[in-house]
Amino acid sequence: YPSEFLVQKITEDNQLPVHLHVSLSLQYVAGLKGSGLVEFFHGNIAEVENEELRHLMWSSVLFYKTPNVEVMACVLLSTKAIYFLLDDSYVHADEHQSDFWNKENSDCENSSFHLSCCFVLKLNDLQSVNVGLFDQYFRITGHSADHIVTCLTRDSYNTHTFIQQLMAVLSLLARTPSPEPVDKDFYSEFGSKNTGKMENYELIHSSRVKFIYPNEEEIGDLAFLVAEKMDGLTNLPSLNILLYVLAFQVNHVEGSAQNTSSLQPKTLILTSSDLFLFDEDYISYPLPEFAKEPPKRDKYQLADGRRIRDLDRVLMGYQTYPQALTFVFDDVQDQDLMQNLTLDHFGE
């Protein structure tokens, strides 16, 4: 252990996303190659001697208790647990996290020693995995609010690969079989299904972990929500969501020494007539079983919306992935020029 193919695969996956900032400690991890990466895992991260590192992925992550703080993490999947290697700056990002992270190394702040926090979710504690729309992200749920993490891969390939690896690792776990289902009578069975809302697609793994995928109704709900934001300008049957993608809105920071820019996570939705940017809650929905009240904010909050007919031009950057797009719209907003001209021309 491990095979040359696995070492090569993990080395290839150990690529930092160029558009996201990471600390020096995570840059060190990203610089490790081959057997050095495996040795680092066993010497610094692995909790038991006989666990194997199976997959590595760099992704932005959100925690249930701090839903507004998106942080970069190196996600390591082994045969025993999922490890989220975070940089130390995350601990200081929110003062309300003192109960979430037990800080003992505060004296290291001013030294040249760079600390990383490692959040561990044991596979035995895993209960369900919710896959987001179009595989742009997935949420891992354990037995409490401390054990809910969303990985914002923004990439269907990375999501699919991680889910496949996770299923393969879960197959190795020896769990007691779930009890036999109790036979329901006809009326209770019929009543439970007659709720008017279709449940999401569930795949219950042999390890009893649920893998939950969105169904068609979720797209329908999203289309209805988008139509509401359009103030009834479009009839709902003709509204089609052509594209749903997790992206960043680039805000240039003025007055700084370098030409820096901050990236604001947004959900971009394209319909046949409009372009929308939403602030989406990626971690609170669907509600976990232990949640006693709904989240404080809606799943989708409209940040910006423009009509395609007002789009003047699209500027494309020449850099490699991730690609930067600039949409330039006409200054005239919320005015249907053709309609106004017609009224002026033919009206009294």
UniProtKB/TrEMBL annotation:
Matching InterPro entries: PH_domain-containing_M2, PH_NISCH_C, PH_PLEKHM2
Keyword Oxidoreductase: no
GO cellular component labels: endosome membrane
GO molecular function: kinesin binding
Main subcellular localisation: cytoplasm
UniProt-annotated location(s): Cytoplasm
Biological process, per Gene Ontology: Golgi organization; lysosome localization; regulation of protein localization
Name this protein carries in UniProt: NISCH protein
Gene: Nisch_1
